[in-house]
Write a structure and sequence with these properties.
Number of strands: 58
CATH topology of the largest domain: Rossmann fold
Structural class: mainly beta
Number of helices: 14
CATH superfamily of the largest domain: Peptidase S8/S53 domain
Distance between the termini: 124 Å
CATH architecture of the largest domain: 3-Layer(aba) Sandwich
Strand content: 35-45%
Helix content: 10-25%
Number of domains: 7
Largest sheet: 7 strands, parallel
Length: 959
């Protein structure tokens, strides 16, 4: 017989249910009761001024045979409200009629208010006078704020996010526990994370690893044009030439400049102006910076006004394994802005473990950095290396409730930050593709998500898994899907079914279909986040066979979490995938079913693709790529061919072939090749049995090293070392947004007028067959440390009475001779004349320094007779004295020079012949100039004081 356990009977009940201390389930149940059970007076769910029937909160255990959460049961018990689900059978409920629970509850205990606390806040320690920064979710924002205003001790509201009824508060712990936590409107509270961390600085990235270079080749017009991405962290360098003309400044831009943010922005949308590796995925997109002072999404109005369609989040906090307020807010943000896609890095804590939730303590699993990454309607991206191996430090799933996380992986050799940025860039490409086919309308974000997941290459263990999700993002496959419109969209209510026909051609190796939908936000601290449950099935009418989606085992043990996926109905994820190897040709039916849609109707998107048998496609290099000469380059392809195969290259349009590997393993999809050290056109081929596959013609070259020879008032001289086999070069200058061809030269230097408006230049070899090789780094000629022929000129003291003059030129172009000169009383006299000039660097000594200032310069005489002078360099020589005043006599000069071995604390005084003091001033440096032009001609006496006492004295004459 079922019992209702009231307060008086609680102690007896606890003894009874915990008699078997070895039962794992009973231990979990005891933990729940210890956390949420109320040993005394039941907690009311009514405000003090509320006169409605008294509503009480209870912790209950339900009978698994009764559909407690079903709409029919809840509608039959209108006074009952589920506040939180703790496990499949344990709930926090509110009701004014506890007797109505008798048919469904095996036991009932009055509940305390701790069910409202996040796992982080539940275990937080501190004194009662500790001040908290909290984020809270409420049911009625105005009513809750009204209650706060009535409290005796003030509470600061730091931030509001009305779209999700969220507030950030600053209050004393004792005030929160006693007066805020019990408020009826409060349903969730968490510690507010205020210090998000950039996941990692990326030192290098490889766009070929995710077939971005292939996508650029196959779809050259798709580069993110007309779209705006937000990089949410500190400010990237908006003056970087890789973003020239494509930066959108907003009031939300952070003031702090970050190299990490600059790298993220470059990976997403860099223009490649600085160097080829500075070209990002969506290199024609507009890039904006949004700060991450808050972990909540930006207001919906901001996304709409600025036109943000992708927001990149390459940061994290602590490992948090629950569905918190930030996760709720991002799910809601996606629903309120149907075309906005949030992309998060998974984190770099893959070698750690969760300290909360059902996966607590499982090393290397469930270690995503931040509860906002638990959101359903976002993309969370882990990292792989160049070979598609998931990195140990890449944070892994599952989500707190067993959902697949991360959904994707991408290249991120040093962390998941860059991986997220790559996926953000690919998402922009997909949005542009769709937009241009639909009259400027952006795709729903769940369609972009479905296409990305469906087109991903398998990574990690076979099939979907908790380390790589649905696989490694493949930009080319994704764009192909979008360009060929291999997708469906629809909407369903509970019990609804929609079907679509797929005609699978003969010789298909595999067919794959992915369903995705943006699910309504769940309540914070939800036991499972899914609200609307859709189902995907693949049906073959000819055979009657049906295939269900792949699902993972979310049971909290390493063996279960690492088990291969099985086909079964998915009741956790808002993404589902069905795949089938070697399907018979014919018509298939895709079925989407509304299993349970309490918050409907639910829109959704489907993406599909199939691979043919014995197919092969080169992914890298493409015709727009350059192989670095004399270096090891990673070749890439996609294939369904069996291994092995013969891999070869040609440098003469296929007349002669050179072996790379006679037994290349095609299943690896990549191969390192030590390219020849030459400037040439290359072709690759793979021979597998009777089939031969050729690559595009690509270039092989080294980048030139561009330098400035001189930067004169009227002209600039650029030069570079000649490249082997190259006699013609293309020079580029930076235009309004991109590097543009400036001049073709048949030499390894260029002189041009400074009237040309650009300060930035690069050079690339023009190869014998007409193609242009790799560009040099782009330089600003005004920042290379070269003036008009002068790179540097210094005069340095050598011993007691000698100096060494050091000269470095920027170029020898048209230089006839050099004259090192020293200033004398009658002008400048030559110390050394060098002709012809054959070196860029010279050192000339002066072994007889004059007492006082010794001033030097260098005169360049050009072949056409023009002369160019360096800046003056001076060495002061005291000749063993502590002080030296010169010139003496002053022959009409208005400045008296004073040299001092130690000027600190010294004072100079001047007196006329009558003993009158005509000047007094502190000495602060050496040399120091004293203006004496106002003094009359004649004899004067000087005195230098040290600490008020005379240090030296003498006389000077002013003529």
């Amino acid at each position: 017989m079922r019992r209702i356990v009231h307060t008086i009977a609680v102690s007896f009940f606890l003894v009874m249910i915990f008699s078997d201390s070895h039962s794992q389930e009973l231990k979990k149940e005891r933990a729940l009761i210890n956390l949420y059970g109320h040993p005394g007076k039941p907690t009311t769910q009514s405000s003090p001024q509320d006169t409605s029937p008294r509503i009480v909160t209870y912790l209950i255990k339900t009978d698994p045979a009764i559909p407690f959460k079903s709409p029919s049961f809840l509608s039959a018990h209108p006074s009952l409200r589920i506040l939180r689900q703790l496990s499949p059978q344990h709930f926090i409920i509110a009701t004014s009629d506890s007797g109505s629970l008798s048919p469904v509850a095996t036991w009932i205990i009055p509940a305390n208010d701790d069910w409202k606390l996040s796992p982080s806040l539940l275990v937080a320690t501190g004194k009662t006078d500790t001040w908290y920064s909290l984020i809270v979710a409420v049911t009625d924002l105005p009513a809750f704020k009204a209650h706060l205003s009535e409290l005796k001790e003030p509470v600061r509201i730091l931030e509001e996010y009305p779209a999700a009824n969220l507030l950030k508060l600053y209050c004393r712990r004792s005030n929160f526990s006693a007066h805020i936590l019990p408020l009826t409107e409060l349903i969730f509270a968490d510690l507010s994370q205020t210090t998000p961390k950039e996941e990692q600085v990326i030192n290098d990235f490889d766009l070929s690893a995710n077939s971005v270079t292939l996508a650029h080749r196959e779809f050259p017009a798709i580069a993110g044009r007309g779209l705006t991405v937000s990089v949410r962290e500190d400010r990237f360098d908006t003056a970087d030439i890789d973003f020239k003309g494509r930066v959108l400044n907003t009031p939300l831009t952070a003031s702090l400049l970050s190299s990490h943010a600059t790298i993220m922005a470059t990976i997403i949308g860099g223009g490649g102006n600085s160097y080829y590796s500075g070209q990002g995925v969506a290199y024609q997109s507009t890039v904006s910076s949004f700060n991450f002072t808050s972990l909540l999404p930006d207001p919906d109005s901001v996304y709409r006004q600025v036109g943000i369609s992708v927001q990149n989040h390459s940061y994290g906090t602590n490992i948090e394994n629950y569905y918190g307020a930030e996760a709720v807010a991002h799910d809601l943000s996606a629903n309120n802005n149907p075309s906005l896609l949030h992309v998060f890095s998974s984190g770099n804590s893959g070698d750690q473990s969760a300290t909360q939730g059902q996966y607590n303590g499982i090393s290397g699993m469930a270690d995503l950095t931040g509860n906002f990454k638990m959101a359903k309607n976002i993309l969370t991206v882990g990292s792989i290396d160049s070979f598609g191996t998931v990195l140990t430090l890449s944070s892994k799933g599952p989500a707190f409730d067993g959902r697949v996380k991360p959904e994707l992986v991408a290249f991120g050799q040093d962390g998941s930050s860059g991986a997220a940025a790559i996926v953000s860039g690919i998402s922009l490409l997909l949005q542009q593709s769709y937009k241009e086919q639909h009259n400027g309308q952006l795709p729903p974000s769940d369609l972009v998500k479905a296409v990305l997941l469906n087109s991903a290459d398998d990574a990690g263990p076979p099939g979907i898994d908790y380390s790589a999700g649905y696989g490694s993002a493949n930009a080319w496959r994704a764009l192909t899907t979008m360009q060929e419109k291999k997708y469906f969209t629809g909407s369903l209510q509970t019990g609804g079914i929609q079907s679509y026909t797929l005609s699978i051609p003969p010789h298909t190796k595999m067919v794959k279909i992915t369903l995705a939908w943006n699910d309504p936000a769940a309540q914070p601290n939800a036991y499972t986040a899914l609200v609307n449950d859709l189902d995907l099935e693949l049906y073959h009418p000819a055979s009657g066979a049906t295939w269900l989606p792949w699902t993972l085992n979310p049971y909290p043990s390493v063996d279960s979490l690492q088990a291969l996926p099985l086909r079964k109905r998915d009741s956790l994820n808002n993404t589902e995938q069905v795949s089938l190897d070697d399907p018979p040709a014919g018509n298939y039916t895709l079925l989407v079913k509304g299993y349970a849609v309490p918050a409907g109707p639910q829109s959704y998107s489907l993406a599909y693709q199939w691979d043919s048998l014995n197919a092969f496609k080169w992914a890298y290099p493409a015709k727009t790529d350059n192989i670095i000469a004399g270096a090891s380059n990673l070749l890439r392809w996609t294939t369904t061919l069996p291994s092995p195969a013969i891999l070869e290259y040609s440098l003469d349009s296929g007349s002669n072939w050179h072996l790379i590997d006679p037994h290349a393993d095609l299943s690896k999809r990549n191969h390192y090749w030590q390219a020849p050290d030459t400037a040439a056109a290359g072709i690759l081929r793979v021979t597998a049995g009777s089939q031969v596959f050729y690559s595009d013609t690509f270039t092989i070259s080294r980048p030139a090293s561009l330098s400035v020879g001189f930067n004169c008032q009227d002209s600039v001289f650029l030069y570079w070392p000649p490249l082997k086999g190259v006699d013609t070069y293309q020079v580029y200058s930076l235009g309004d947004q991109w590097l543009e061809p400036f001049m073709v030269v048949k030499d390894s230097f260029l002189v041009f007028s400074r009237s040309h408006p650009s300060l930035y230049y690069a050079v690339a070899p023009i190869l014998p067959f007409g193609a242009t090789g790799i560009k040099s780094y782009t330089i600003n000629y005004t920042t290379q440390g070269v003036d008009c022929y002068w790179k540097s000129f210094t005069a340095d003291r050598q011993g007691d009475r000698a100096a060494l003059l050091n000269l470095e030129l920027g170029t020898l172009y048209q230089v006839k001779n050099l004259s090192f000169e020293k200033q004398s009383a009658t002008g400048y006299a030559s110390l050394a004349l060098i002709e012809p000039v054959k070196e860029l660097q010279y050192a000339v000594p002066d072994e007889s320094l004059s007492q006082g200032s010794n001033t030097y310069r260098v005169k360049i005489t050009l072949q056409d007779g023009r002369t160019i002078y360096s800046e003056d360099e001076t060495i002061d020589y005291l000749a063993g004295k502590d002080y030296l005043l010169y010139p003496n006599p002053l022959g009409g000069q208005s400045l008296l020079n004073i040299l001092s071995a130690d000027p600190a604390g010294k004072v100079l005084q001047l007196f006329n012949t009558l003993g009158q003091k005509v000047y007094e001033g502190k000495l602060t440096r050496s040399p120091q100039q004293i203006p004496v032009g106002r003094l009359a001609k004649g004899l004067y006496f000087f005195r230098i004081l040290k600490d008020g006492k005379r240090a030296t004295s003498g006389k000077i004459v002013i003529n």
